[in-house]
Amino acid sequence: MSVGFWEIFALLLLVGTGLAVVRLQNAVHAALALIANFLVVAGLYVALEARFVAMIQIIVYAGAIVVLFLFVIMLLSAANANVGQDLLPRLPWVAGLGALGLAGVLTFAVTRFQPPAEVPALGGGLPQALGPLLYDPEKWLYALLAVGFLLLVATVAAVVLIEPERIIAATSHPAHPHPAEPRSPDAAQKDERVVTKR
Amino acid sequence: MIWLIASALLFSIGAYGVLTRRTAILMFLSIELMLNAAALSLISFSKLLGSLDAQVVVLFIIAIAAAEVAVGLGLIVAIFRRRETTSVDELRQLRG
After folding, report:
1. Contact in structure between B41 and B9 (CB atoms under 8 Å)
2. Chain A residues with CB inside 8 Å of B5's CB?
């Protein structure tokens, strides 16, 4: 297969943005580099006849997921987003050599692959072609339902993880919905009034 | 074929990030990179074999990544509220 100018260009962009994600010291900058990497990959998807997946990649990955990352980075550690001693202090060369070895093994493995001589056309990977596969009970329908259930469970789990004490308290004492919440002075005064009336 | 090699490189970069980063959020960013590399290799195989099934699997990968990020970032926020840190070197309770 011939390797043209734009393939080399896209490969350099891909590796460059990936290295930026793992090497940039500022967490916000790393997340922005991740957006760039996702956009490059989405462009590759279009070139590889997967247009619907490219659209989902931009909307879900580069849109929703990275925005969630940025939101949490800014919520938690805007002051210490610049993590100076973030990189591993000991043996960084071992990690680098391990990654290089992994790259070598994976490249060796994928270059063993011999594509068949004749392949059917993908038709651009449009939703009209993907939809019937996705909703076919003999293909992917049950996997789709399982993924939907997984997303529901993950959403509930994320909500529960943030405030476990409040949720346990609210569900075990229905008469007092939010006992863990700090009470406002007005509410305390009202309680005192009730007590004095008695 | 070059995109299979590109996805191998991207996966190795993500692995390097997971090994060298010490902040949980940045390790998550590197894991996203590795998931993305796996998806890219699936799309390359879809093109090489002329099969749309791999593209459906990539849609599932994206959905599972979204679920993982929701739970993972919830965990990080919960840990940060309790311990005031997201550095995995300072979270040693599970080390025994």
Report:
1. no
2. 107, 110-111
